[in-house]
Automatic annotation (TrEMBL):
It is a multi-pass membrane protein. Residues 17-205 form the ABC transmembrane type-1 domain. One of its GO terms (molecular function) is transmembrane transporter activity. SUPFAM superfamilies: MetI-like (SSF161098). It comes from Rhizobium miluonense. The lineage of its organism: Bacteria, Pseudomonadati, Pseudomonadota, Alphaproteobacteria, Hyphomicrobiales. It is found in: Cell inner membrane; Cell membrane. The keyword Ribosomal protein does not apply. InterPro entries: AA_ABC_transptr_permease_3TM, ArtM/GltK/GlnP/TcyL/YhdX-like, MetI-like, MetI-like_sf. GO terms for biological process: amino acid transport. Belongs to the binding-protein-dependent transport system permease family. HisMQ subfamily. This is Polar amino acid transport system permease protein. The chain crosses the membrane at residues 20-43, 55-79, 85-105, 184-202. Keywords: Cell membrane, Membrane, Transmembrane, Transmembrane helix, Transport.
Amino acid sequence: MIQFTTWDVLRGLLLATRWTILLSLVSFAGGAIAGAILLFLRIGKRKAGRVAVRYFVELFQGTPLLMQLFLAFFGLGLFGIDVPAWLAAGVALTLWSAAFLTEIWRGCVEAVAKGQWEASASLGMGYIQQMRYVILPQALRIAVPPTVGFSVQVVKGTALTSIIGFVELSKAGTIITNATFQPFTVYGFVALIYFALCWPLSKSSQILERKLNVAHRGH
């Protein structure tokens, strides 16, 4: 019987952590880009765009991420299309992230006082100029803490991709447990690694929120 040392277990988990980090970065970045586009449609003047984005957001917020992963991975398979696990995981997490970021940022834009819209309009600014020079800079300040905080949810969400065969940290934990029969040690390390990834982000979100609130009160 092969003997596995604690270092062997930890090394295997750290190697898998690379894929957790990469998937988190790709999903968050893709979600941010898509979310920014959807935001402008959501707060735009065209009703069709607002309604379409609202239904998109409700669909992805109102259904479990696990189901979305299943549909991304197995749904296209019904039509004979072979979808790699990493692609299905990336697409599902990106769309899921986009839906939540769109709503987070919409709330931040709407949190800007209506007087700012009225004041900029009185200066003869058009809608694009209002957004660029007045509204978005203020909304960005409000949006930073919840956006950083949401990145923690993205990291945690990657754990669900193990269900479609993507080998990230939690999937690697299961594989190593089956080989070593040391579930307490393996999952203890898994929990510590997730904590090491998520705690700095959570703390950063709290610090940014305090600093930005103090700066806002100072004005």
